[in-house]
Amino acid sequence: MFAALSLITLWCSKNATVSKNTDPVTRKCPQTPGKGAQPHLKMTLPLSRSEVFGELRQELYDDEKFHQSDAHIFIIMGASGDLAKKKIYPTLWWLFRDGLLPEETHFVGFARSDLTVDAIRTACMPFMQVTEMEAERLSAFFARNSYISGKYAEDASFSKLNAHMLALPGGPQANRLFYLALPPTVYHDVTKNIKQHCMSTKGWNRVIVEKPFGHDLQSSEELSTHLSSLFSEDQIYRIDHYLGKEMVQNLMVLRFGNRIFGPIWNRDSVACVVLTFKEPFGTQGRGGYFDDFGIIRDVMQNHLLQMLCLVAMEKPASTSSDDVRDEKVKVLKCIPPVSMSDVVLGQYVGNPEGEGDAKLGYLDDPTVPKGSTQATFATAVLYVHNERWDGVPFILRCGKALNERKAEVRLQFTDVPGDIFDNKCQRNELVVRVQPNEAIYAKMMSKKPGVYFSPEETELDLTYKSRYKAGCT
Fold it and tell me: How many helices (H) and strands (E) does the chain have?
């Protein structure tokens, strides 16, 4: 899922700064005068959920650059798609529910399908995590929603969309944010029509471009040139929604907020790094889209490569987006082209003895072209040729219709030198489980109770749903 806070940043100016007079994470603990008091000691307590939201609302409403207009319209291009119903609409609902959107915000869906808002609501409900207490608030959210059907390459459809937005409360002055939850094949037509027919003349305009960004290097460069001809750079947001996941963001804090990991986070102590993305379901009617891209473009070259960069990069000068990006780019420049001898590809087939969808192979999906050789599974070994990681394999694995749902980063450390336990010790591992059941745990050896030195593998486990009752997104 999206992290709700990540989507907030898309609403805010790239140059917006957090007030230096407030700390959005902690509050000072008041000192009680008396014996043994230490007035100079700064104690902090975590902010409660409501206090965090209060800080965010204050930043939101105090940002003059953001409030070029008090009315805002969020347009979901591709509102009938999988990404919209599973990710975008649920996240917008959570932001609306918690009061983290401007009061005068409206949501407009646009796609080719002949849909209604009620149909969108029905499709999204399994992913929105709505409690009985929130039913009234949910109705208020969908009352702010509307839907327009049209063709992506048709001028008249976008003129109709623009007329609809102008008719909304505050529409002529509203800021407009366009989210392209679409296949890249229609980016050119959609962005051209947005520029020609749907730009706000009094508010700001922004376009969010979802991965995959092009089909290859040439198409990616062509798309960049096309977007730059239509919009200024500060109007364009190129995103990979996976970076909004709590545990992906936590890689930064885990690495650079803990002294214990610094000395061992390198080729001297790490034997290999395994990045895994597994889904237990197949294409399920999305074969037409998936077959154009395959598992490598769909998952590996974006989600997994982004996590690889977070694991491998040097400490950035700050947590600003530009500083983090610069360090990621340095990592990518150190990765040579992958050899085919370091790649394994596969395509799932049906299990005749399975149940339901398990009986169906990739080619059994009616939306998949007959005889397709597109990969639904891939493993690739990458190397980062720099001083920190030279010689350490980074193993990227991803696939559909596998045995479980799992996404994780696993660092396996080298063997303990000078073994005195008769080869009974296994390698230590540090695992960051992104989904499901977010967790960080370390596999280590411990003495099994008894009179003998019997090593046994055990875990130091931080499971988020146990430690943080509010959970993750």
Answer: 14, 16
Out of 40, 215, 303, 385, pick the active-site residue.
303
Q: Kindly state whether residues 461 and 314 are assigned to the same domain.
A: yes
pLDDT on residue 66: 56
Per-residue pLDDT tens over the stretch 291-323? 888 899 888 988 999 999 999 999 999 988 889
Rounded to whole angstroms, the maximal C-alpha distance in the chain is 82
Residue 335: name the closest of 358, 313, 365 by CA. 313
Name, in order, each residue with C-beta under 8 angstroms of 58's C-beta and a sequence gap of 6 or more: 22
Q: Is the link from the previous residue into 172 a cis peptide, with omega within 30 of 0?
A: no
**Residues 206, 314: one domain?**
no
Q: What percent of the chain has pLDDT over 90?
A: 46
Would residue 448 count as lying in a domain?
Answer: yes
Which range marks the domain in which residue 117 is found? 54-239
> Which pLDDT does position 418 carry in this prediction?
86
State how far the Cα of 61 lies from the Cα of 102, in Å rounded to an integer. 8
**Which tens digit of pLDDT belongs to each residue from 246-291?**
888 888 888 999 998 889 999 999 999 999 999 988 887 677 778 8
298: tokens are 């769909």
The answer to whether residue 303 is catalytic is yes
CA angle 127, 46, 460 (to 5 degrees): 75
The CATH number for 157's domain is 3.40.50.720
